[in-house]
Amino acid sequence: MLDRKILGEVLDTALKRGGDFADIFIEKRVTTLVACEENRIERIKSGLDIGAGIRVLYGDTTAYAYTNKITKEELTNLADIVSRAAKHGGGEIKVNLQKIAPDTKPMAEILPTEVSIDDKVAVVETVNKAARAVDARIKQVMVVYGDVVQDVTIANSLGRWVEDQRVRTRLAVNAIAADGEQIQTGFESVGATQGFELMRNYDCAGLGQAAANRAIAMLEAKPAPAGKMAVVMAGEAGGTMVHEACGHGLEADLVQKGMSVYAGRKGEMVASELVTVVDDGTIPGKYGTLRFDDEGFPAQKTTLIEKGILKNYMYDYLTATRDKVTPTGNGRRESFEHKPIPRMRNTYIAPGKDDPDSIIKSIKNGLLVRKMGGGQVNTVNGDFVFDVAEGYLIKDGEIAHAVRGATLTGNGPQVLQMVDMVGSDLGFTIGTCGKDGQGAPVSDAQPTIRIPEIVVGGTAHEAAAGPRLRRGEQGAASPVSWRIRRL
Fold first, then answer.
1. Which of 9, 72, 256, 278 sees the fewest Cβ atoms within 10 Å?
2. In 3-state terms, what secondary structure has residue 473?
3. So what CATH class is 4-220?
4. How many C-beta atoms lie closer than 10 Å to residue 115's C-beta?
5. Residue extents of the structural domains in the chain
6. CA–CA separation, 124 vs 204, rounded Å?
């Protein structure tokens, strides 16, 4: 977008009054959204966003400003503004930028920008039709297709200069079933760092059918029982548990602020020896994958917990500098309008050695979680409450009838310490994770795991589960992370 000489001069200006570090993030983002509701296409939206953000770090001070004008004059003026964060005065700075070439293999085989809107509408209509055909009790279906092609230029005062293209495509469906006064929903989504080939190669109609079948299954389900019981979380349930109850607490900014239950615990046993937790930005095609983070550092595979022992946190440049460690490639931002912060990418519990079916057979009485819903977690103490979108009772090692209205209430570190069987499978889900007012595309995963005892809320939920965290009651000192899945 801008050549090396201009980028270097802008960074020089940003540091002319001193400062410890400066960077510039420039992006051109092309997006498309197609939404179907009420059995018709309700919205078709496309957009082009172009802008740049410039940041200066000086001690514990961060100055950040952004603009929609990508000109040398505008960026130089912006750099002069943020340079005022440095108080001690500076000198002549000459940043020596060295271009770091990304993997030459493109993320997309078929760029979404080269696909007609009619083809995208056809995908949405196919999903809508398939979901509605499942059962007459499917009363409403909402389908959303979205894609983004993001071209970025990132340069910083360490001399790193990156130009890269990121492509993401996603499809989500929410089916609503009703029978009398009973209403249930079923949600399914697919997304990847791929182009429109994802839609060509994926069974899009099957996605709609799966969502509708879940809604019908929950419509016919019996109310969930309440109390303490064994829980098997299937691999297909995805990694909402590890993302919320564990992942956010391992982001270095929360750790350094003392707002994480994992603060100061490197080297300690924080989970069962069967549990290894990884955040990996390099897995081909996954929704949270990137070649470089939004500070220009390479994505990498970071082992956070290894055989139960806390090994590492997720760092951006600022938090890594404070801890005198190397950034892990977790500096991410929603757009040029936001400064980077430590964020997850593809976070998962590593597969174990147990056969998933044998884990279910080992349970005399318990709950099988096939799909997780939304929830909340207090990162300070690890307490969480999660909804179960699809669950089944287990009786004498066999899957019995479906149950609805179940919730899981517990403490993340305690639950991870109790895990006593870990399956050899691994199931991913996608989402948009919200933190500090920013959304970031992520995926998370887990194998089938057995938790010997956890509080399940159901028909006697309030009596059995005890106090439940509710939105607005957590207080300023108790940050709660919400799992956000945008249609």
1. 72
2. coil
3. alpha beta
4. 19
5. 4-220, 223-482
6. 9
